[in-house]
User: What shape does this take?
Amino acid sequence: MSETITATRETTAAGEAPVQQLSMQQALNRALDEILAANPRTVVFGEDCGRLGGVFRITDGLQAKHGEGRVFDTPLAESGILGMSVGLAMAGFHPIPEVQFDGFAYPAINQIVCQIARMNYRSRGTLPMPITLRVPSFGGIRAPEHHGESLEALFAHVPGLKVVSPSDPHDAYHLLTYAASRPDPVIFMEPKSRYWQKGPVTFASETPDAGTAYAGAAPWAGLTGARVVREGRHVTLVAWGAMVARCLQVAELAAEDGIDVEVLDLRWLKPIDAPALVASVGKTRRAVVVHEAPLTSGLGAEVAQLITQGCFDTLKAPVERVTGFDVPYPSGDLEDEYLPNIDRILFGIQRVLEYRRG
Amino acid sequence: MDTKPTLAAVDDAAPLTQDELRELYSLMAAVRHLDTSAVAWQRQGIIPGYAPELGQEAAQVGSGYAVDKARDFVFPTYREMGVARAMGVDMVGYMSTHKATWHGGLYKPLESRFAPIQAVVAGSVLHAVGWAHGQTLAGLPAGHLGVALTYFGDGASSQGDVHEAMNFAAVMKAPVVFFIQNNGWAISVPTERQVAGGSVATRAAGYGIPAVQVDGNDVVAVFEATRNAFAHARSGKGPVVIEAMTYRRGPHSTADDPGRYRTLDDERIDAGEDPLERFRKRLLADGVADEAFIAAAHEAATAEEEAIRAGIEALGPRPGSEMFDLVFQETTPALESQAAAWREESEHV
Assistant: This one.
């Protein structure tokens, strides 16, 4: 799957489709605009999503364009937002609710875990929940408490949910479009520290109108799995969200020392693209998982197990994890101490490179 | 300043006909027989557990009878068997949840206009608001809106989701009828230690929602209150709260022992007159029904219970593959591989 997307990008770079430089915020905004235009059953809502356009402006201008019935503000209550999404889905709508910040998903956990994740099962498939829950996620912006949480392991542990996190504007655009077209609930974790970085977004056609952007399989062929962001021979860094960019920086620095680092953007945190992990680490024979969330029972443990299961005979070292610590997400002054930084990731690489069997 | 919200005087429907009154009695009798039998089934080992609604037949049948199945939708919790029966839900499918066949039951929720049974109290109240707002978004003209009818109890009223639901519904003028069965008890905790102010209905004024408190043991009063509320919500005037005052005459569930928190004397004093007996006397006194009709209704109820029991006893376990197949609309490789391993290792191949 990871190879497919590489091929797609080469093809488009050859001139078959236009490329635009957009920030992730612009890419997400454009995706929502097109989804709303293409699917009249879609509704976008949450706290301050209407007139204000969201605190991160992801829904900027959408209410003016699509109307107050399609894009609206809710009262300030996350359980209400998610509980309401269930009812809208039961009535045949495709809700795209927003929880304003990761930490505010906690008040909605009951509705997410006990209701959204289970309704398809409980109803024996007769009441699907095509809900895409957008959650500005992860840290790195010097924000107040509860504004820098990494909830992927929590959500990935819940049967009935799918979890995805884009790392760049292109993926943000296409993964959101894809997620919103699926019949199952998807937790869409947006790396808020990457909202404003620009990057190339390749579109399906010159005028990505409703039909072409939404209807076909072609634009997101290859988006359902992980992606090799940088090829390398010596070690694989596995990351998602904002950590992908950091791992790319690390790879550049390591290259100066002759270490050839492969960076695998997992993208889907559930389901995890196990074949892509095995393909990459099967080649490099060493792996370091990098995530912002605390270490213990973090998604890195799951990734490490999948790699160990698939690459046990060829691994040259135990899979390393470079993560946040088992502490509450700290204040901005200590944020850089908490988040995996370049040095800590380099140490992780060093540990797998220097490992000798005892 | 008088800020008490009032129901719009939009209900000009005719009073219940004699046929309808008799039908209500037949429904209550069917519910009574099925409910008391289900407790017996549990004692006999036919089902592992059940949450009886004994004493709430009038509240449930009266409200469920007001639902227009062509356009309305009901959001129950786990003690709404009487509503389901009044709405014509497949009762073997309904009772299968108590047989431990499938959480949510085997009936078809969309066709039944009756959401899957779920056990998080107040969890479904917000679903009703979302569904109802969907009716508004669908652009149906006032007077033709589908109405969401959501059930919960005095215990569930303590949940924050009920506050969020009432506030959302009022802000959005969503066509929702909040139907509280205040049956006096949330397992072992009485209403006075559950509901500050003593009434859920009085809270509605804080949201600007009209509310009525109704004698929940009077099936006709419940029906009329619900019909009024439906007319109000359907006309686009927003939500309504109905608090039906009733009494949970049985245990919370077949696993409960009310002797630990209330005496038989308490029950005799607090329960009031049995709603079924009360309605029987009224129909006889008004000349709407005679003893022969009453006897026939109970005979039919017994036959119906026996047929449902036979259906329940005949229900085998669902195929284990459904555990995997029904999680998602689009399954995942991990789930497929777990299903394959389960099949292989359980020798179900």
